# Entry
Amino acid sequence: MAVPKKRKSASKRDMRRAHWKLEPPTLVECSRCHALIVPHRVCPECGYYNGREVLKVKEK
# Structure
C-alpha cells in the first residue's frame, strides 16, 4: 500500500481544501405566490408544485 514519504506542507493541504466553502442555498421565486423557495420542492407558503396543489396549507 502506498504511503506518503514526506509530510505535506500546510500550503499544499490548504490548496487542496480551497473548495470546502459553505454556499448559501439556491433560491427561486414561486410562480404562484412569488415567495422564495428551494427549486424542485413544494412551496411551503401556497402548497403548489409544478402548477398543481400538492399540500393543503392552512390560512394564517
About this structure: The longest strand covers residues 28-29. Residues 23-60 form one domain. The CA atoms of residues 46 and 57 lie 6 Å apart. The chain has a mean pLDDT of 93.
